[in-house]
Design goal:
Blueprint lengths: L2 H10 E8 L14 E15 L2 E6 L2 E5 L5 E4 L8 E8 L26 E3 L2 H20 L4 H21 L11 H16 L6 H7 L4 H12 L3 H19 L4 H7 L5 H12 L3 H11 L1
Antiparallel strand pairs: 1-6, 2-3, 2-4, 2-5, 2-6, 4-7
Length: 286
């Protein structure tokens, strides 16, 4: 495989093993156009996904749909060690590998509103063996490694699809009552991001002091209130820029920004592009 092919593969697929012993929190505005699979080998983390936080421990498998807001944070600052394997990929990576698969939908597991699977010992052994082989193969990059990774990814997705099929609903309890309260607030933000949302208005609506709300929102989700609202709004703005015929001013208003200059500044801070440049780039790709 030549250098160009290797670079193309790395853009469509990534697998990474990492062990951390220091305090680590992911960047604020975190969502992307790749599917994500995260396996906890040891330690524990809080994992915020879409509208709630999960307490993830050894043996938990996390699955995240593309463009879903998520973030991990530490549970206890006195015990920050954790060890995980992370996979990110685009559907295009599998290419024709899945053309003949017609007896199951390998991507259905990302649309079931089930983000965390708590695996039993047998399942943990299977998944760890598979993931470590993928890490090793990706590191060595011997002849045919890309084919090996594609076949292994299909096996992984089939395993996850079968596990999800056995789980009827999202059965994970909230870590505590505070997490449940913040989850209710996040759901409200997700449904009303286009409105004038402020720390004060949310605090009043949910009968919580602004100071306490600000502090606990950050602790539970990993985001500040403003970071999260901006992330939700800009994610929707990106979708509208790609899929609608609305102009930038109309989109800014539609996602909750009264000031077009402020919208442009926030959009660029999160995406790295101005709204017009983002729209132009995606039109060229379509």
């Amino acid at each position: 495989m030549n250098k160009k092919d290797i670079n193309e593969a790395s853009n469509l697929f990534m697998v990474e093993y990492r062990k951390r012993t220091d305090i680590f929190n992911m960047p604020a505005n975190h969502y992307h156009d790749r599917y994500e699979i995260y396996y906890m080998l040891s330690g524990e983390r809080y994992y915020f996904i879409k509208d709630r936080t999960y307490h993830v421990v050894k043996g938990d498998l996390v699955i995240i749909n593309k463009n879903e807001i998520h973030k991990t944070t530490h549970v206890d600052s006195s015990n920050t060690m954790h060890e995980r394997i992370l996979i990110e990929f685009k559907k295009e990576f599998l290419g024709s590998t899945i053309d003949d698969i017609n007896d199951t939908d390998l991507f259905s597991c990302f649309h079931q509103n089930i983000n965390v699977l708590r695996l039993n010992i047998t399942e943990q052994s299977f998944i760890e063996n598979l993931l470590f082989k993928m890490v090793s193969e990706n590191k060595r990059q011997s002849e045919g490694f890309k084919t090996y990774l594609k076949v292994s990814l299909v096996e992984l997705l089939l395993f996850i699809t079968r596990c999800v099929a056995k789980v009827s609903t999202n059965h994970f309890e909230y870590p505590n009552a505070v997490h449940k309260k913040i989850s209710d607030i996040v759901k409200h933000i997700n449904n009303h991001y286009m409105e004038n949302l402020t720390l004060t208005s949310i605090s009043k609506k949910f009968f919580i002091s602004p100071y306490y709300f600000s502090r606990t929102f950050k602790e539970v989700t990993g985001f500040t209130f403003v970071e999260y609202v901006n992330s939700v709004r800009i994610k929707e703005a990106q979708r509208l820029l790609k899929e609608s015929k609305l102009n930038v001013t109309q989109i800014a208003e539609k996602v909750g920004y009264e000031n077009i200059t402020h919208f442009g500044r926030v959009f660029k801070a999160i995406t790295g592009f101005s709204p017009l440049k983002y729209k132009k780039n995606n039109k060229e790709l379509s």
